[in-house]
């Protein structure tokens, strides 16, 4: 080994990959709300008739039509950049087997998260939520849906979809409505 050389090319690329992953997490947090609760939920009791809709949602913000499209395009652009970086890393001949395995594991985790986000968004559209954006973090999930307000039934449908598609507990699910 040459003296004075601190990092190999493969290690430097791996560090860049981790930084890009951190940037993607930061962007995901930027597009989610800063509130850490699942809205103002009201409990249903025996006296509530089935015709009454009890709304449970966080503060509804007004968002233009392009919000969901813009957020999804930015998410896809970040994913593309990360994919290119990983491909470049794996093409490097100076990587050890451990570094290659770490890069492949990072890609697998990213692909799994992306598949879960897409599955949840598709299932939400099937349940008549016109626009939905799902951002999965390491231990939590944020769901942004276009709605004037959610009924208890709708909130439970969203929670059911999320818990069947991920291993995230109900306490770490945050649903935000936008108008």
Q: What does this 3D model show about the protein?
A:
The protein is mostly helical and 179 residues long. The chain has one domain: Orthogonal Bundle (Helix Hairpins), CATH 1.10.287.4300. It is built from four helices and three strands; from the N terminus they run αααββαβ. It has a three-stranded mixed sheet with strand order 1-2-3, with helices on both faces. 22% of the residues are buried. About 16% of the residues have low confidence.
The radius of gyration over CA amounts to 20 Å
The quaternary state of the protein chains shown equals: single chain
Going across the biggest sheet, name each strand in turn. 1-2-3
Which structural class is indicated by helix and strand composition? mainly alpha
The tally of beta strands, per DSSP, is: 3
Mean pLDDT: 77
Tally of helical segments: 4
Which superfamily, in CATH terms, is the homologous superfamily? Stage III sporulation protein AH-like
Terminal CA distance: 60 Å
CATH topology grouping: Helix Hairpins
Strand content: 5-15%
Largest pleated sheet: 3 strands, mixed
Helix content: 40-55%
**Which CATH class applies here?**
Mainly Alpha
The domain count comes to: 1
Overall CATH architecture = Orthogonal Bundle
- Outline the low-pLDDT stretches: 35-62
**Order of helical and strand elements:** HHHEEHE
What is the approximate shape? elongated
